[in-house]
TrEMBL record:
Family according to the record: Belongs to the CDP-alcohol phosphatidyltransferase class-I family.
Catalysis performed (reactions): a CDP-1,2-diacyl-sn-glycerol + sn-glycerol 3-phosphate = a 1,2-diacyl-sn-glycero-3-phospho-(1'-sn-glycero-3'-phosphate) + CMP + H(+)
Organism in which the protein naturally occurs: Thalassospira mesophila
GO CC terms of this entry: membrane
InterPro entries per UniProt: CDP-alcohol_PTase-I, CDP-OH_P_trans, CDP-OH_PTrfase_TM_dom, CDP_ALCOHOL_P_TRANSF_CS, Phosphatidylglycerol_P_synth
Pathway assigned in UniProt: Phospholipid metabolism; phosphatidylglycerol biosynthesis; phosphatidylglycerol from CDP-diacylglycerol: step 1/2; Lipid metabolism
Cell location: Membrane
Topology with respect to the bilayer: Multi-pass membrane protein
EC number: 2.7.8.5
GO molecular function terms attached to this record: CDP-diacylglycerol-glycerol-3-phosphate 3-phosphatidyltransferase activity
Protein name: CDP-diacylglycerol--glycerol-3-phosphate 3-phosphatidyltransferase
Length: 183
């Protein structure tokens, strides 16, 4: 059972996605806070599944497979819903598209390199990218439901652009590394 805890935490991130999507169809500012809370809880599980797997020495193939998929599905669902509901709009859609494209590119690259038994480890910069994405999406999920003193939409937009720029850098680094192994 101890070995399954990190995997269950990873699966919980996938399971929460329909509830996150449903929160967009609820009226009023409470819906923003529900979406934010679900997203934040998913973010916490992302930290703890990896931490527990390493500290308890129970990392599994399933966990290594599911973890990046759960992350990408959660980020993609949040981005798509916020664009669809106008919480990300105008030029701010650009970093959202860049983030989605990079995630697909790196996933495909990792899959191909795995067949060649070539690892493509996560870089420190990519961890910062993920942090900026999560913070940006958290602020944007709260949106105009935030207290007047906190400009959540502005903070979220700025962080989304920062995440987009770092996403381009990390995508380039991974692509440059991967191209050495492509025929």
């Amino acid at each position: 059972m101890k070995k399954q805890i990190p995997n269950l935490l990873t699966l919980s991130r996938i399971i929460v996605i329909p509830a996150l999507v449903a929160s967009f169809y609820i009226e009023g500012p409470a819906a923003n806070w529900v979406g934010f809370t679900l997203f934040a809880l998913a973010g916490v599980t992302d930290f703890f599944d990896g931490y527990l797997a390493r500290s308890m020495n129970v990392a599994s193939r399933l966990g290594r497979f599911l973890d990046p998929i759960a992350d990408k599905l959660l980020i993609a669902a949040a981005l798509m819903m916020m664009v669809a509901f106008g919480r990300i709009s105008g030029l701010s859609v650009l970093p959202a598209v860049i983030i989605m494209c990079r995630e697909i590119l790196v996933s495909g690259l990792r899959e191909h390199l795995a067949e060649l038994k070539v690892p493509l480890p996560v870089t420190v910069l990519a961890k910062w990218k993920t942090t900026a994405q999560i913070l940006a999406l958290g602020f944007l999920l709260v949106g105009d439901a935030s207290p007047d003193l906190i400009p959540s939409i502005l903070i979220g937009d700025v962080l989304l652009w920062i995440a987009g720029l770092v996403t381009v850098q990390t995508g380039y680094i991974y692509l440059r590394t991967g191209l050495k192994h492509l025929d």
